Design the sequence.
């Protein structure tokens, strides 16, 4: 099941629609790495609201995506981690170190606005 | 929702099967009356051991059953493969130890998520992981401390 990637201003929004297999996660990673270039995106939001489990593989892949996109010049924010999912991640000792997280889409957009504004200033 | 069959075997041969196993475990746990957060813990543990099968043995199977232990009912999940086996089980159970560039979270993580966790392995014969989560009675206090 492919994850639709929408463009919103200078951001991309990857809105996960159903539970993903490992292969789907890797596909998302590759799609985002390409699309950040073709859309010249400055930020990416990955909405994981529908994911019922974020296990070690998903965590590692999300971390890799964020690091790859950072190398491509875009900031990443993961939004929508559900309370039970967060609980299980903590129990598993999984962290999204170095990856932005926000409560929902709205907060994710605010997070990216903050980040990219900061970058624009630093570059001025 | 359809009532999930008990004592079911699921083949694990591809990453899609991980999702199927997890969903079956989730449905069974729901049926058995586990709380929402426990259901997610069980699903996450299944995910980790199923992936362990794929990564190390390429294929194997997971069996779900309801068993009675110490006069209490529990959901028992057995993951079995005929892969290369584990040379050093204590090392494989160390958090952060991985032979294939993973996070090294799978087996120790699954152990933390469940109430009981046993692992048997013989080199060249395969690996069997048995894990259980006890069904708590309505007013019983949580025993999730580890």
Sequence:
């Amino acid at each position: 099941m492919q994850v639709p990637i929408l463009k919103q201003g200078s951001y991309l929004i990857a809105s996960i629609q159903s539970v993903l297999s490992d292969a789907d996660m890797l596909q998302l990673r590759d799609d985002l790495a390409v699309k950040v270039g073709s859309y010249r995106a400055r930020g990416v939001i990955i909405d994981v609201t529908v994911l019922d489990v974020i296990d070690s593989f998903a965590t590692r892949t999300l971390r890799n995506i964020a690091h790859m996109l950072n190398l491509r010049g875009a900031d990443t924010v993961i939004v929508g981690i559900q309370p039970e999912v967060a609980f299980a991640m903590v129990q598993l000792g999984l962290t999204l170190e170095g990856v932005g997280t926000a409560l929902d889409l709205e907060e994710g957009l605010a997070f990216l606005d903050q980040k990219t504004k900061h970058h624009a200033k630093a570059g001025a | 929702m359809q009532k999930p069959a008990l004592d079911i075997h699921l083949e694990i041969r591809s990453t899609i099967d991980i999702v199927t196993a997890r969903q079956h475990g989730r449905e069974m746990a729901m049926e058995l009356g586990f709380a929402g957060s426990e259901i997610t813990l069980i699903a996450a543990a299944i995910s980790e051991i199923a992936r362990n099968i794929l990564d190390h043995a390429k294929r194997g199977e997971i069996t779900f059953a309801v068993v009675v232990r110490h006069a209490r009912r529990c959901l028992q999940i057995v993951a079995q493969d005929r892969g290369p086996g584990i040379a050093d089980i204590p090392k494989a159970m160390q958090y952060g130890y991985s032979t294939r560039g993973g996070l090294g979270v799978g087996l120790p993580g699954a152990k933390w998520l469940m109430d009981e966790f046993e692992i048997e392995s013989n080199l060249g014969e395969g690996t069997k992981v048995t894990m259980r989560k006890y069904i708590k009675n309505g007013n019983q206090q949580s025993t999730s401390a580890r």
Chain A has a mean pLDDT of 93. Residues 105-123 of chain A form the longest helix (19 residues). The helical segments of chain A are 22-38, 56-71, 83-91, 105-123.
